[in-house]
């Protein structure tokens, strides 16, 4: 059996989630709804991003009691969020035995300059990124999974699209570049050269890349998959909609059958109202979650 905490195991765990939907949940009841709808994992947190946005103040790691109750309620992997740079919250989550930690911009950052040294942990980490340089910096720190950031809690997919298009365009550029130009690009992107070289050779990130932030409909999920996402994170889109179970099932089906318009048309019917959306231009700069971290 592979030893827990090695790079291969950490990365492999994320690969097993490929093609699936990871759903934010705040209670064991929501976790059961997610599992029954076919989620490949759940993410335990105190409030979904739309509620974090509305509440203001400091958003922290969820109460361990709630996380443990969620772990008891489901058989699928349970992830949980820590604040950027808050390595003690991560120590606590590792102690609780969660399957994955999300060092997330959705919570209030604890450190404005430094992310967690994720190599120190046996539990794997996922981190957000808006472009290739940011993704490779997080991977260099030990992230075994990446998700594009989008703008969480808005129900507006436009930023998720922007970040995924940016990531894929940069990967294509690197792939087609003469090798002697890579070092200068590594310097410009602030990306480790060895990782950039891997991207050039493999034509993809060294770890799986899900899409997150603002996905609210089955069509949004399929759009992100067609743009190249390996899977989907949905938070507010499900539990801030009128019928969470139906919408959760539909988003799972749309993620699986993302290239089949007939299925997409079918699963998009009769879902009740989607979450209310937010125009990105109306968000004050200091409330933009995607700009947290670097
Ligand atoms: O993984 C996440 C960020 O850490 C969230 O699950 C994701 O960003 C949720 O965003 P939204 O509420 O817009 O679906």
Automatic annotation (TrEMBL):
It catalyses: aldehydo-D-ribose 5-phosphate + D-glyceraldehyde 3-phosphate + L-glutamine = pyridoxal 5'-phosphate + L-glutamate + phosphate + 3 H2O + H(+). CDD domains: pdxS (cd04727). It is an enzyme of class 4 (lyase). The active site is at 81 (schiff-base intermediate with d-ribose 5-phosphate). Gene3D superfamilies: Aldolase class I (3.20.20.70). Residues 7-212 form the PdxS/SNZ N-terminal domain. D-glyceraldehyde 3-phosphate binds at residue 165. D-ribose 5-phosphate binds at residues 24, 153, 214, 235-236. Belongs to the PdxS/SNZ family. This is Pyridoxal 5'-phosphate synthase subunit PdxS. It comes from Desulfofundulus salinus. The gene is pdxS.
